[in-house]
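S.,

As promised, the ribose-5-phosphate run. Input:
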Amino acid sequence: MIVPGASSQALAAALAAELGEPLAAVEYNRFPDGETLAAVPEFDAERAVVVATTDSNDAWVELLQLQDAVREAGASEVVTVIPYMGYARQDRAFEAGEPVSARAMARAVSTGADRVVLVNPHEESISDFFDAHVTICDAAGRLAEPLPDDLADPLFLSPDAGATELAEAACEAYGSGETDYFEKTRHSGTEVEIAPSDADTEGRDVVIVDDIVATGTTMSEAVSHLDDDGAARVFAACVHPLLAQNARTKLERAGIERVIGTDTIERDVSVVSVAPLVAAAVDAVEAA
Ligand code: R5P
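Predicted complex:
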């Protein structure tokens, strides 16, 4: 039985269809003091697949509650799918006294999950933080699907060296084009410095590929360099379209032709579904 977190209702429905499993009715309530209560009143299955993007603190708590609720209702196996894992970028203590927040969250989830499925976590090494078995899905190649067929001499760029594999996967899936990357230095949560790539972009269609668009600062900074170099159309493609704060305005003002994202976070740009990938991972988990 597929059990949706409040932030992943469309993806959970798509996953239920992919796997041919029923979609559980879930009630999401809030007490006057702010506490959440996510309940699964009619859970009736051996296996629960809890699907919950954790893009807020409430979503994290709901995920833990859903894991506990299905176990309480008799599930003998709990597979937890975290399509977008919040706190994944806090994967180390950057300064003395800081927590490794991703590890703290992973440990909490592991208390109630037999297995975990993640989609493009910020770093693959995050899987080491879980005590439960982890399967990672890579959705980068799927980002090529909504791109127009007529891209002019396409160039797939990543905003930093760490995301080159994503740009390469999208380029390969598109079937033509080159890849390159910018050099990025982050100064704060909303300030980044981008050094232009060496690639010639004049007259070319450019696709910038990243794992997350959060505040949109990285993407819009990158686009500003492309404008200087006379690129034609610029597309922004990401696995996780978090689009926090004024990200949409930044991207619009930067002149981006189209933003493409997946349904790990449900936004209007989430035109690519990761459901088939996640279904395969859940089945693979079952076979493991
Ligand atoms: C950082 O390493 C990630 O790969 C993304 O580049 C980053 O999360 C994007 O954040 P923002 O949209 O706030 O610049």
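Residues 57-72 form the longest helix (16 residues). The domain at 141-263 is CATH 3.40.50.2020 (Rossmann fold).

- D.
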